[in-house]
Amino acid sequence: MANPIVKDKLAAGDFIFAPGIQDMITAVVADRVGFEVVYASGYWLTASAYGLPDAGIVSYTQMVDRVATLVRTSKAAVIADADTGYGGLLNVHHTVKGYEEAGVSGIQLEDQEFPKKCGHTPYKRVVSCEEMVEKIRVAVEARVDPNLQIIARTDALQSEGLSAAIDRANAYRAAGADVLFVEALHSDEEMRTACAEVDGPMMANMSNGGLTPMRSVEEMQTLGYNMAIFPALTSLASAWAVEKALREALGQGGTPEPEGVPLFDFKEFCSLIGFEEVWDFEKKWARD
């Protein structure tokens, strides 16, 4: 069953701020910090699991497995990137069913042609508005759990302009989408205009290094947003820290304890990842 917190927060007007999760270590750390909602990023789950770019290469089967693992691991509600629904209308139906069974609280579908591309990279192509409207209708009909939120993303800005992207978002809302996501906006003005002219809750993508200006929660609320994901922060921070540690280790004669590199406490991490439960079990059932 979907965690109702996403639907409830939207209904109550509480802003949702969700970090991107690329692996299960990040998931348990996000739990430790106290995030109530997290984002299963297609870009970063693909990169971490398979070392591949977010270009429609990873299949539905691979992605739903990663998402299901995240739902089992995290205490937070999970909003999951489902790309284009991995094909046509039947694929969308199957994808929504599979993600719902995995236990996600939100599923994001986009209007790119299959295979898709990362929203902050060039050469994106979108399907017709009518085709995406049908996909949203299929997704709504496929949903069983009313707590599951359907998020409709449009990548039409690059090829069709802001006005067309807004028209698409409104069409997707009329088709039944719960949240709208106009991707890769370039300025506060575009963000404010989209929020003002789209008739429904709006999600922002705060992607570090991407095309959209980075703004605080307060600033995003002022612009008109109801929720935001920041999918890249944890992955970029992790990659930088790993490279820093490895370079320092190599540069200091191959020491596994390089100077100037902070490390997570090993005993704390054992507890974080669940070893105390294992030890308690072994203590209870240990043989003399």
Jot down its keywords.
288 residues; TIM Barrel; 2 domains; 8 strands
Give a short overview.
The chain has 13 helices and eight strands. The protein has 288 residues and is α/β, with parallel strands linked by helices. InterPro entries: ICL/PEPM (IPR039556), Pyrv/PenolPyrv_kinase-like_dom (IPR015813), Pyrv_kinase-like_dom_sf (IPR040442).
Secondary structure elements and their pairing?
Elements: H1 5-12, E1 16-21, H2 24-33, E2 37-40, H3 42-50, H4 60-73, E3 77-81, H5 89-102, E4 106-110, H6 129-142, E5 149-154, H7 157-160, H8 162-174, E6 179-182, H9 188-197, E7 203-205, H10 217-223, E8 227-230, H11 233-251, H12 266-273, H13 275-285
Parallel strand pairs: 1-2, 1-8, 2-3, 3-4, 4-5, 5-6, 7-8
Helix pairs in contact: 4-5, 5-6
Give the name of the CATH superfamily of the largest domain.
Phosphoenolpyruvate-binding domains
Characterize the largest beta sheet: strand count, sense, and whether it forms a barrel. 8 strands, parallel
Number of strands: 8
Structural class: alpha/beta
Radius of gyration: 20 Å
Question: Could you walk me through the main structural features you see in this protein, from its secondary elements to its overall organization?
Answer:
The chain has 288 residues and is of the alpha/beta class. The chain has 2 domains: 5-231, Phosphoenolpyruvate-binding domains (TIM Barrel, Alpha-Beta Barrel), CATH 3.20.20; 239-285, no CATH class. Helix content is 49%, strand content 13%. The chain is built from 13 helices and 8 strands. The protein has an 8-stranded parallel beta sheet with strand order 6-5-4-3-2-1-8-7. Helix 4 packs parallel to helix 5 and helix 5 (89-102) runs parallel beside helix 6. The longest helix has 19 residues, at 233-251. It is globular. 42% of the residues are buried.
